Amino acid sequence: MASDSTFDVVSKVDSQEVSNALNQAQKEIVQRYDFKGIGAEIDFSGEKILMKANSEERVKAVLDVFQSKLVKRNISLKSLEAGEPFASGKEYRIEAEIVEGIAQDVAKKINKLIRDEAPKGVKSTIQGDELRVSSKSRDDLQATMTLLRSFEDADLQFVNFR
Question: Which of 27, 50, 69, 132 has the most crowded CB, counting CB atoms within 10 A?
């Protein structure tokens, strides 16, 4: 009897590429004329990315520079979770973080999507911050991958296809 074929659905980000994008954004912010003398900067402190400037519009521009560097390095903006600008003394700040792994509520949405719209023999189980999808038919699994590529809430990758 043929065994089930499986693949895992994960949400991972290459941390080296994020670091490179951050370094490029820092260099651009230092060099650009419109950021001179306004205290604009971007720093990585532990898990958070902190952007600072002297006005709300400027700190949003710093975020925009960082987002453009992420896109150039093929990192989905779905992985970047940025907060709203807030005043801190004389400057405005935005805190952001790179999200990895699939959150429980998002995993449940994916599970429901697979149950409702994937071919009948496909089953999925939540395993920590990833999902394992299995079926007897590899064609059904590939149809499920196509279905999940249109999922909007997270940046998904497919690994361990067996």
Answer: 69
DSSP H/E element including 117: helix 104-117
Distance CA 104, CA 128 (A): 8
Per-residue buried b or exposed e for 101-138, using 16+ beta carbons within 10 Å of the residue's own CB: ebeeebbebbbebbeeebeeebbbeeeeebbebbbeee
3-state helix, strand, coil in the chain (%, to 5): 40, 30, 30
Q: What is the pLDDT confidence band of residue 1, given thresholds at 50, 70 and 90?
A: very low
CB 96 within 8 A of CB 51: yes
DSSP E strands in the chain: the ranges are 5-10, 41-45, 48-53, 80-82, 86-88, 91-98, 123-127, 130-135, 157-159
For the stretch 51-75, pLDDT in tens is 999 989 999 999 999 999 999 999 9
pTM, 2 dp: 0.82
Burial bucket for residue 147 (CB in 10 Å: 0-12, 13-18, 19+):
middle
- Over residues 79-108, mean pLDDT: 89
